Amino acid sequence: MNDGCVAGLHLDAGTRAQARRRLLSIKGHVEGILRMLEDDSLYCVDALKQIKAVQGALDKVGGLVLRSHLRDHVVTAADRGDTDQIVAELMEVLKYR
Amino acid sequence: MNDGCVAGLHLDAGTRAQARRRLLSIKGHVEGILRMLEDDSLYCVDALKQIKAVQGALDKVGGLVLRSHLRDHVVTAADRGDTDQIVAELMEVLKYR
Amino acid sequence: MNDGCVAGLHLDAGTRAQARRRLLSIKGHVEGILRMLEDDSLYCVDALKQIKAVQGALDKVGGLVLRSHLRDHVVTAADRGDTDQIVAELMEVLKYR
Amino acid sequence: MNDGCVAGLHLDAGTRAQARRRLLSIKGHVEGILRMLEDDSLYCVDALKQIKAVQGALDKVGGLVLRSHLRDHVVTAADRGDTDQIVAELMEVLKYR
Fold it and tell me: Residue D9: its chain A contacts at CB < 8 A?
């Protein structure tokens, strides 16, 4: 997991706890979709709606972590002298979608 | 779950099985992120990368279900006479993002 | 432009006119951003906001055309017997983002 | 345009020039779609493909401006003491989609 990681920068405990709570709920949501998918009368669009809802919830967890990263690590990159790496990895992770 | 559902249209068994397999793997991935989040040396960008990976995997499940819905239900809507409902709910579910 | 095109299916005149009106406004918006970019006191985030606004406007044009395509061509694919091609090209065009 | 703007931060001349070049090409692309839309034999999916292509090109301009903003303004926010504003406006502008 440590590839390309800027040494010594960690996700703060509060954000980790919040992200964990949300991901536990997301895991429950995925389990709910797994149960829906056992039902042979399931309508496609109902499955699609649930998948989109999980993606929306993941967007929110991602937003939490991103905000914490910006606030704790990105705005101080010039001070640490690792601007190039911080910017490159941020552009990379924002690229998806 | 049946709100707005077009009566009698079901997700086919093969697609349900494939979607289940992928969602089981996604559930495992979410559990992996939950474990990562227990580690106080976790780097934000590593968490973000894993969240994006799960979203990519969910996109693929959504694509499977969408393709099945198009092929089995949307292209036959004119025959059944439920074009307006089929189009409205599809536009709705494609809107997210 | 006709590569992969299903023969004889055309975008209806009303949707073409609506899409044209919206695209003329989008063109004006792009010209506005071009003028903004001549100003050496331009703030990055103001440029980003305008770019996002144009993307939102393009999403709406795309939605217009997609709805028309679904209603006029996709729901009748089973009747015409070109389901495979209609589904494949629709999945392709929905894939971006 | 200046609402919410962090005083004294400007998009650098090189990025402005690059963004202008790309936006001129995007304007030409939009004009091309406007001409396509005059053709009553236009196929919906061909219009959708062109709209997606313009959105992809806009994504690239947005990426240019974002990278410049991160490198020149965000990584120095702690030094300037405007972290809260920089992070808030960045989260806002990344939210679309």
Answer: none
Q: Do A87 and D71 lie within an 8 Å CB cutoff? A: yes
Residue at A4 is within a domain: no
In which domain, by residue range, is B46 found?
A: 13-95
Which subunits count as partners of chain D given 3+ CB pairs below 8 Å?
A, C
Average pLDDT of every residue of chain A: 91
Amino acid at position C51, single letter: I
Q: Could you tell me if residue B8 is left (phi over 0), alpha (psi between -120 and 50 degrees) or otherwise beta? A: left
DSSP state of A74: I
Q: Contact at 8 Å (CB) between C46 and D5?
A: yes
Which ipTM score applies to this complex? Answer: 0.90
**Chain position carrying tokens 């005083």:** D7
Q: What pTM was computed for the model?
A: 0.91
Region at D81 (left for phi over 0; alpha for psi -120 to 50; beta for the rest): left
pLDDT of D68-88, one tens digit each? 999 999 999 999 999 999 999
Q: Which amino acid is at D84?
A: D
The single residue listed with the structure tokens 């709606």 is A49
Q: Into how many domains does chain B fold?
A: 1
Q: What percent of chain C has pLDDT over 70?
A: 91
Give per-residue pLDDT as tens, B29-87: 999 999 999 999 999 999 999 999 999 999 999 999 999 999 999 999 999 999 999 99
With beta carbons under 8 A apart, name residues in chain B contacting A20. Answer: 34, 37-38
Q: Give the whole-number percent of chain B exceeding pLDDT 70.
A: 91
Q: In the predicted model, is pLDDT for residue C48 greater than 50?
A: yes
Q: What is the CATH number of the domain that holds D69?
A: 1.20.58.1000
Whether residue B5 is contained in a domain is answered as no
What is the pLDDT averaged over residues C24-40?
97
Is B84 a domain residue?
Answer: yes
Does residue D1 form part of some domain?
no
